[in-house]
Amino acid sequence: MRRFLQRVAFVYHASYARTVSGVPIDPSRADEILAFLLDRKLIRRRDVYRPIPASYQNLLRVHTPAYLESLQDPATLAAIFGAPVPPDEVQGILDLQRLSVGGTIQATRLVLGRTARIAVNLKGGLHHASPERGMGFCMFNDIAVAIRRLRAAPRSFAGPVLVIDLDLHDGNGTRIAFADDPSVHTFSIHNRTWDDRPAAAATSLALGEGVSDEMYLAALRDALPPVLRAHKPGLVFYIAGCDPAADDHLGDWHITATAMLERDRFVVETVRAAGAPPLVIVPGGGYGPSAWRYSARFLGWLASGRVVEPPGDMELALGRFRPIAQQFAERAVAFGGMGRIRSTSGA
Ligand SMILES: [Zn+2]
Q: What is residue 345's predicted lDDT score, i.e. its pLDDT?
């Protein structure tokens, strides 16, 4: 029983390695994390599940039809990604983000179906996307869609939900999506607040730039436990963003690897101490070639109870992993244009 409760499930698709020009995210991040975890035998292959893309119906549970329609317009995509998206990449990025949403839906299913108490989607945390607008590389809000899908399903989970967002950037999109819903508390510690509209149940802490380990961990230790005690969530999402790290290419904080792991362990242990509700974890942001290491260190500890240092050179492990990755490449996302999403059923 103890072993069952501690099992961690992983959601991964080989298409998670798709890229978009101009977004400084390491496309191999999910591959590297999973290759490391499997190679060091911190997890087993049977712990890995393959997602399917989120359906148009599920995206509509959060996003307005007008917004989804506007994604056909190159100007909308340019605003989200900060630069024009080359025409031959448009379908790929739509598919990738739909698959990321499907992955978070899948992870939520796994924890509520008691396959595992904790599930990790290795691509997710699209927290800037609000119902009517995408921004900051985020088109669809995966966690918001997963929660709304639960709320819409008969006899599904109806209890309080907590979203703990420790990406460097504000979880503005998720907060806006649930601004009128006191059953979903959105908790975000970030450098700058992107949107200060009030919300029914939210914690939004802007710490400014140049934040150190001590300041960051103190803010987290002060703010998180009272929210868990007061809100009593029956389901928790954790965006374990890696961009607070000192070596992040977009970040402006100075958080060490030791403190990043301490942060993640504090979140998991605090959630466990609050009755261990089902927990869904997504990696959020993290820019540059080292971002994957923070997730790998944390998730290795989460799955095995041991802290194993990721190697400097992943080539050998990735070489052994690539044949395995092919098993998670079937049912690749190829649905054609957004207009055809409507006819697909799925996550
Ligand atoms: Zn971020």
A: 34
Distance (angstroms) between ligand 1 centre and the Cα of 152 equals 29
Q: What pLDDT, on a 0 to 100 scale, did the predictor assign at position 330?
A: 64
Q: How far is the CA of 100 from the centre of ligand 1 (A)?
A: 16
Tell me whether strands 235-239 and 279-282 are parallel, antiparallel or unpaired.
parallel
Q: What is the extent of the structural domain holding 329?
A: 2-343
- At position 252, the amino acid (one-letter code) is D
Q: How far is the CA of 313 from the centre of ligand 1 (A)?
A: 25
Coil, strand or helix at 253:
coil
**169 CA to centre of ligand 1 in angstroms:** 4
Please tell me the distance between residue 214's alpha carbon and the centre of ligand 1 in angstroms: 20
Instruction: State the DSSP string of 165-225.
Output: E-SSS--HHHHHHTTT-TTEEEEEEESS-S-----SSEEEEE--SS--HHHHHHHHHHHHH
Number of domains observed in the structure of the chain? 1
Spans of the chain below 50 pLDDT: 1-5, 332-347
The domain that contains 234 carries what CATH number? Answer: 3.40.800.20
pLDDT given for residue 335 in this prediction: 38
Q: How far away, in angstroms, is 16 Cα from ligand 1 center?
A: 18
Distance 194 CA to ligand 1 centre (A): 12
Position 122 scores a pLDDT of 98
Q: What is the pLDDT of residue 159?
A: 96
Quote the ligand 1 centre to 273 CA distance (angstroms).
Answer: 27
Enumerate helices (H) and strands (E) in the chain, giving the number of each: 12, 8
Ligand 1 centre from 292 Cα, in Å? Answer: 14
Please give the Cα distance from 247 to 293 (Å, whole number): 11
Give every CB contact of residue 328 below 8 A, 6+ residues apart in sequence: 12, 13, 14, 48, 50
Residue whose entry in the numeric block shows the structure tokens 């317009």: 73
Q: Are strands 118-121 and 48-49 parallel, antiparallel or unpaired?
A: unpaired
User: What is the CA(234)–ligand 1 centre distance, in A?
Assistant: 26
Classified as helix, coil or strand, 280 is strand
Strand order in the sheet with 8-11: 48-49, 8-11, 118-121, 279-282, 235-239, 161-165, 184-190, 202-206
